[in-house]
Design brief:
Blueprint: H1 3-23, E1 29-30, H2 32-41, E2 53-54, H3 57-71, E3 77-79, E4 90-92
Antiparallel strand pairs: 1-2, 3-4
């Protein structure tokens, strides 16, 4: 799968993610390469293969619970959290 195909699939995921966050009034921010791509390229950085978002702590925990209940037939959450790292890392797959 080339990067354009990957980005097409990522766009579907981020649209679903945005609709979900809008439905439940959850705040999130594009970060890193996703924010840079949105501003500089009006989309993805040509070689980027993920979406980077940050979410306030209380919204993140609300998101995890609601998302697992509502989207379990379409997506799953893969958590990669560590006591050595102060951030929670969760991937929507």
């Amino acid at each position: 799968m080339d990067s354009k195909e990957i980005q097409k699939e990522l766009l579907k995921i981020v649209k679903d993610f945005d609709a979900f966050c809008t439905k439940y009034d959850l705040t999130y921010f594009l970060m890193g390469g996703s924010a840079l791509g949105a501003m500089r390229h009006r989309g993805f950085i040509p070689w980027d293969d993920d979406i980077d978002v940050f979410m306030p702590y209380h919204d993140y925990h609300k998101f995890k619970q609601l998302f697992k209940n509502e989207n379990s037939k379409i997506y799953f959450l893969q958590e990669e959290n560590s006591t050595n790292w102060p951030l929670f890392i969760t991937q929507v797959r």
